[in-house]
Design a protein that fits this description.
Elements: H1 2-14, H2 23-33, H3 39-50, H4 56-97, H5 106-137, H6 145-149, H7 151-175, H8 181-184, H9 186-201, H10 206-220
């Protein structure tokens, strides 16, 4: 039970995004590392979660918890998964209500650092979405020297994703959304490309990719 709690606490704390952006990270943890479910069981649970109302990831977490320890396991897994976001939003809401975010001092410094980290995380979340899309479509990117032999398919995938990003940028430009920087800042594009290579070519754990992206945001995107 402790492993169940800690596993979903880790996923809830270090994986950003929602829905399909989380599928590969959850699959790696639940199917490959912990071996709580087979791949078919995980995919069936994910498909079932898509046809029910509510957040997809939370329903999958409840499903996995139920398979391990019944109703109590489902409740424990959901609490562990939601605890980091609930705690973070509670603290953020309290800080906003007292106007502490933009004031000089420790709280202002902390939230400034969080904003910078999120700027690095945003492009990495797009890479997670692309990784999940390729996983569901069955596209496999070879590692190492195999990538050179299959450079054309990889380049085609990257071009397609870039076109999609360009469309998203035009939409955000039309709506005035702040996410325009994703293509306007070369450093953000670099974070996206590096995240794609880390996830698709080297199969680096999504948690480490998110942490690295946050670190890059703190170092280079805090402008």
């Amino acid at each position: 039970m402790l492993k169940l709690f800690l596993t979903f606490l880790k996923l809830g704390a270090f994986i950003f995004g929602s829905g399909h952006a989380l599928v590969n990270a959850m699959q790696d943890e639940i199917v490959d590392k912990q071996q709580w479910l087979t791949l078919d069981q995980f995919q069936s649970g994910w498909a079932s979660a898509n046809i029910l109302p509510g957040p997809i990831a939370t329903k999958v977490v409840a499903y996995v918890g139920y398979t391990q320890a019944g109703v109590f396991g489902a409740a424990l897994a959901v609490v562990a998964y939601l605890l980091p976001s609930i705690s973070g939003m509670t603290l953020l809401g309290a800080a906003l209500s007292y106007g502490a975010v933009d004031r000089p001092g420790p709280m202002g410094t902390l939230f400034g650092a969080l904003r910078a980290a999120v700027r690095g995380i945003k492009p990495a979340v797009l890479a997670l979405l692309a990784d999940a899309f390729l996983s569901f479509t069955g596209v496999v990117i070879p590692r190492g020297s195999g990538l050179v032999a299959n450079a054309a398919p990889f380049a085609l995938v990257m071009v397609g994703i870039t076109i999609s990003l360009a469309g998203m940028w035009r939409l955000s430009h039309a709506t005035g959304a702040d996410s325009r920087y994703l293509l306007g800042d070369p450093r953000a594009v670099g974070v996206f490309v590096l995240s794609m290579v880390a996830l698709l070519v080297f199969r680096i754990d999504a948690i480490y990719v998110m942490l690295a992206a946050a670190a890059i945001g703190l170092t280079y995107l805090a402008v």
